[in-house]
Amino acid sequence: MGNDESSPKGADFKKFATPRIIGGIAIAIIVLWALSLIFGSTDDTPSKNEQRASHDTREAAPHAAGDEEGDHGDTSIGDENTDDHVATDGHVDSETVDTATSHDASAGQVSTDRQHTAASHDAAEDEKTGHDASAEREADSHAATKAVKKETAHKATSHTSKSDATDHIASKDAKHDEVAGHPLPETVMTPAHKPTPKGVAFVEASIAPLRYELEERWWGWRPNDLIRVTDNVNNFQMGVLEVSRRTVVALAERISRTGTTDAYDENLEQAMNWLMVKASSYWFPSAESKYKEALEEMEVYLEKLKNGGATFYTRTDNLIPLLASFEDLLGSCDENLVKTFNEDGTPVSFFAVDNYFYYTQGVASSMATILEAVHHDFLLTLESRHGTELLHHAIVSCQRAAEIEPWIILDRKYSSIFANHRANMAAPISHARFYLGQLIKTLST
After folding, report:
1. 173 burial class (0-12, 13-18, 19+ CB within 10 angstroms)?
2. Cα 421-424-425 angle, rounded to 5 deg
3. In a 3-state reduction of DSSP, which class is residue 209?
4. What is the rounded CA–CA span in Å between residue 242 and residue 213?
5. What is the tens place of the pLDDT at every residue in 61-115?
6. Nearest Cα to 397, choosing from 431, 425, 426?
């Protein structure tokens, strides 16, 4: 039977089995080699990815530095270039792996030694690639540090250059101002303009005429002089005083209050009381000293008004009493200017004529100043009742009366070739009284 097994039948079996065993061994070797190449390329992929990341970092760093230094640039362009580069590298790597795989599949008869040689060569390449990648990362870190330092230095230089340019412009402007002769402002910012509160112009106008007679007029207040050297100025000051009294009374009782139940302003009340002192009182109390105290009280009220601590109402029911008192005063002046006989039947003397004239002129001068302030502070009230034009005519009439300045007061007949200055003064006073009466009617409706 053993001989039978070594028969031609056993030889056929050997011929059949040998190639298959050898082929199986070869296929196993090829499969192992292919697996080693595949795993080797997979291990190589992170190093290549690291190379691509370091390459992208090197390309992105100059772009970022350029953008920050120039304060402009398009980062999207750099990103697109980077993405395109990564995509290209990935495409090349995939093609390389496919080509290597096909080449390994076709080379089925390569020896085992060559396989080991290729594996060791791949390992060496991986080690070299890792070393190169670490070196490149160090180089990129060093380059990024240099870029940051360069950027910081550039910003500092830019800031310094801007500061130098600003200082140069400022010094140039300063030199220009010095040459032009204009003083340099202490601060660059100018304070915002704050509108003047209502009533400031009115109170200032109420103070101004009497203050001029007390402090700026030569010889000061004259009606209480023991020895009266002058006469015309004395009567003029009496007319100013009468207008000031009526104005302060209207201000204290009406304009500064909301109604009859509102309390008086203590400063205006004191001013009203001091102005009622007799104009000819020389001592205990002195007229001019009390009048000055009255003006000081009004100045205190004025400061409170500016600071918002006092009230001033521009209603028609507050303005009408003031205009009515002015109308009454002008009516009295008008009567004194046109009458020829006194109440006892005696004719008006020559010495009384100029007294009436200058008293009326003082009234007209002071009243014109206060009516102008009324036009300023009560403008909205006047415009709402269409009374601005009437007030304007009254102001012009008072100003015309204040401008009459004859050398000597004459009181001749109306048909005489000589002037009758009382009648000349009576004409504008009569017009002022008429327009104030019309204005009162307009405001009352």
Report:
1. exposed
2. 90
3. helix
4. 13
5. 444 444 444 444 343 334 444 344 333 343 434 343 343 334 443 434 334 444 4
6. 431
